[in-house]
């Protein structure tokens, strides 16, 4: 066993005991699969934890369900990034969904996830799912006025993901959404990545008329406090809630009480949002 450390900043990190299962050098990044006593299998890209068997449900449920429930009848879903398949699995829990497109830049992430994370990637071959190996930014050029939901399940805003946190990119997202379209993005940790968080929100609000920020507690992400930003041009995302649909979903974290006060955030987070 080794001690694996993810460095959150120069001064702090998360260290876990682990056995290395596989290390793959893809065209885009280093993919590392670890087996850990505490969090089960762990997917690490370029030294950063992306997902673990133990806590992935929190991230994937919270990323996907609020946006799906903000839309009156989501049929066409696009996920950008998300090669581990967790967001695909959650999107398919909504019976109205007819197609889920997954646009992942790195095919090796999908191959590794199917092999080492069957409980997360298990729905990637569902007949409703179509996988595109492409850069999300380029992919959106060709799909105008098509999706009901776009989910940005990207890695941190460095390298290939950097472009996915810009105003130009969010404008393309808006153009690819249909009239009642809703977008949601993982927007980093307000606690330990305040600059990333602020930048994402300030760029999103330049493009969409309605937006809301919410949080979830994810133990293996920097500081454990994680943010998501939901946005739409036409839907009042903060006040549109379909409470009656929550019970129909099989979930472990997302539930009526969390949904009812989804946009309740601590005062310091509210202050950062106001200043963004
Ligand atoms: N839940 C994760 C997190 O926040 O740590 C994100 C998981 S998911 C594995 C992120 C994926 O985004 C990676 O597999 C990466 O290859 C993909 N990705 C990065 N940049 C991309 C781009 N420009 N277009 C499409 N996919 C991209």
Characterization of this structure:
With 276 residues, the chain is of the alpha/beta class. The chain folds into 2 domains: 2-50, Spermidine Synthase, Chain: A, domain 2, CATH 2.30.140.10; 56-275, 3-Layer(aba) Sandwich (Rossmann fold). The chain contains 9 helices and 12 strands. It has helices spanning 56-70, 86-91, 107-116, 118-121, 136-139, 167-176, 194-207, 256-260, 267-275, and strands at residues 2-7, 13-25, 30-36, 40-45, 48-52, 76-81, 99-104, 129-133, 147-153, 177-186, 210-217, 225-232. The strands form 2 sheets. It has a 7-stranded mixed sheet, with helices on both faces. A hairpin with a 7-residue loop joins strand 11 and strand 12. It is globular, with a radius of gyration of 17 Å. It starts with a strand and ends with a helix. S-adenosylmethionine binds at residues 28, 45, 50-51, 59, 80-84, 103-106, 109, 135-137, 153-155, 160-161, 163-164, 186. S-adenosylmethionine (SAM) binds at residues 28, 45, 50-51, 59, 80-84, 103-106, 109, 135-137, 153-155, 160-161, 163-164, 186.
